[in-house]
Amino acid sequence: MNNLVLINLILTASIVLSPVSIAGTAQGSTHAIAIKMSSFNLSSQKWQNRVLLVFAPSVNNRTYQQQMQLFNQHQNGFKDRDLVLVQVLATDKSYANGQLIDESSVANLRDRFGVDKDNFRVILVGKDGGVKRQDTTPVPATEIFEQIDAMPMRQQEMQQRGRK
């Protein structure tokens, strides 16, 4: 089982198994479950992180599963390149670096990049907020890393971090 699927399963289990807050009426008949969701705003990432968006219909989508397997074992590469992985799914929960994001954020990302709910797409957004690549088929993490490593801003980061 790849790490991202495992992380998502653990997160889902922790949400399901965590204590729920119950808001009751006088009779105690109304129950509400509080699940922490965050909004994800692409502009808040600008100049801080690169963003890798993976759009797919669901976690059961074969292309999405292939893509997640290609990213498996590359968490350090993502972290080293300040790369935030955002999984934008139509029928399942969506996540930004493992944190659940709300439906309005998902809708905003789909609208902004013009990706239909039935389509698979991988989009790399640079620290400057510009789209650096778009793929409609699974792409190896190493290919994305090579493209990022060739960017002038990344070259500066590597020099500043003492690696060239």
From TrEMBL:
Residues 42-157 form the DUF4174 domain. GO terms for cellular component: basement membrane. Residues 1-23 form the signal peptide. Keywords: Signal. GO terms for biological process: extracellular matrix organization; positive regulation of cell-substrate adhesion. InterPro entries: DUF4174 (IPR025232). This is DUF4174 domain-containing protein. The lineage of its organism: Bacteria, Bacillati, Cyanobacteriota, Cyanophyceae, Nostocales.
